[in-house]
Amino acid sequence: MPDVTTQFDLLLPSAPENVARIESLVEQVKVSVGFTEESFGNILVALTEAVNNAIIHGNKCDPSKNVEVSVTKSNHTLSFTVKDQGVGYDYRNLPDPTAPENLEKLTGRGVFLMNQLSDMVIFSDNGSRVELQFKI
To answer: Using one digit for the tens of pLDDT, what is the confidence trace for 30-40?
Structure first.
């Protein structure tokens, strides 16, 4: 039987300034669960990118729509799930941010960073739900 020891939930109205609330959530989880500073940085950046994408691209900054963030720890895996109220997107067909023509663009690195910093990224609900998993 998996050892589910921790659950956190956060509901954010889709305003860009609410992305700043992610750092305190990650700090709260770190105090409760315990993980390294390196993990803290990876989790913070990946989760910030996921929430930012949900607010800006998923919910189109519509403050009447919310982004749900949930955190669970099961055994040695910490999972962060971010769900927006948008229609989703084709997460399988994104431009490569490392391609020469994309290097100077100011956007387009969020999913790339999530994949680089997380141990596993799972998209569902047509891309309007993303789960970031970290081994701790």
So the answer is: 999 989 999 99
Instruction: Name the residue ranges covered by the structural domains of the chain.
Output: 4-135
Cα dihedral value 92, 95, 97, 102, nearest 10: 180
67, β-bridge pairs: 12
Placement of tokens 């910490």 in the chain? 78
Q: Annotate the chain with three-state secondary structure.
A: CCCEEEEEEEEEECCHHHHHHHHHHHHHHHHHHCCCHHHHHHHHHHHHHHHHHHHHHHCCCCCCCEEEEEEEEECCEEEEEEECCCCCCCCCCCCCCCCHHHCCCCCCCHHHHHHHHCCEEEEEHHHCEEEEEEEC
Quick one: which of 20, 17, 2 has its CA closest to 79?
A: 2
Quickly name the fold that domain 4-135 has.
Heat Shock Protein 90 (3.30.565)
* pLDDT tens per residue across span 51-74: 999 999 999 999 999 999 999 998
User: Residue 63 and residue 79: Cα distance in Å, rounded?
Assistant: 26
Tell me the pTM: 0.90
CB 7 within 8 A of CB 78: no
